[in-house]
Design a protein that fits this description.
The protein is mostly helical. Helices cover about 80% and strands about 0% of the residues. The chain is rod-shaped, with a radius of gyration of 37 Å. InterPro entries: DUF6466.
Amino acid sequence: MSGKLKRTRASLPTRVALIVLAVLLGMVALLAVVNLAANGNYNHATRSLQENIKTSKQNNVDWDKLRVRQQQTDAQFDDAGEMRALLLPQLRESIDHNSRVSDQLTKTIIEKAKSGKDDQSDSDTNANADARQTNGSESKKDTRLTDAQREKVEELLKQNTQSTQSDSSTNGSAANQNTDKSSSQTKPW
């Protein structure tokens, strides 16, 4: 039995200290993973929020699509703040702040989506009524058009008027030239 080595065990306080240290390291690792995941969700949600804010400032916005995207952004902020107790204070404050901004944007988008549907149905009804009343004459300006839409309509009307005038002047001068030629020249047939 001389070939067997005898192992010595660490003392009880040393073993307890190592177990406590392992548990603490495990908790720190868990906190790090939770904070990293929350930070990733927060960053993604913040980028989405910034894109939605930029989109909401544009003229031609599909409010229904934007509402859906914004609700997804709200859900991302909710996911980021899910384990609030384990998050670092700065991250928790950032998530709370951007979540409030996101909620306000969502409310604004929902209001505009509702008013856009109401305006669209009103303008469709008004357009049909105006078309029946005017029967081809110029209809009243629709105050629900955006400035960009109004400018485009006016530009198209100007182009239409100019092309109509140039066509009639071209046709008129061509007709005058034809009558002048026919009176001065004899036709062989």
